[in-house]
Specification:
It contains 5 helices and 2 strands. It is mainly alpha-helical. A two-stranded antiparallel ribbon has the order 1-2.
């Protein structure tokens, strides 16, 4: 193998994590400003994006701690996906998109958190194959 680290669309997982953390922060801020509820819960994507961004940046700054820090990042990715599962409650109760921004945020968290966790697992598997 010529690659030393897993890359998706030319980006390593630290870069993807930083982009994803920024995306989550912006999503939460945007959803809050566009929704009329001004509920603290609309900031949940932002609250979860901050540690993703923080630990990914730390992984770049401290490469010797990269393994630990990126494992913490994937735990937050998994929490994001699990938190997004709450959208199923709205879907099954027939109230999907009644609370538009809340349900859209949950759906976004489910889809992006699942995909992000998948990429992290692929990265860990790739690193394992290099041993």
């Amino acid at each position: 193998m010529s690659q030393k680290e897993y890359k998706f669309i030319g980006l390593n997982m630290e870069s993807i994590s930083i982009i994803y953390g920024i995306f989550l922060i912006i999503w939460g801020l945007t959803a809050n400003s566009l929704s009329s509820t001004n509920s603290v819960t609309s900031f949940i994507p932002s609250f979860l994006g901050v540690p993703v961004l923080f630990f990914a940046i730390l992984a770049l700054i401290y490469p010797s701690k990269k393994k630990l820090l990126m494992h913490i990042v994937v735990l937050f990715g998994l929490l994001i996906a699990i938190g997004g599962l709450d959208v199923l409650r709205s879907i099954f109760s027939g109230n999907f998109l009644v609370l538009f921004w809340a349900d859209l945020s949950k759906l976004m968290m489910l889809l992006t958190g699942s995909f992000f966790t998948f990429l992290c697992v692929q990265s860990f598997r790739f690193a394992r194959s290099l041993r």
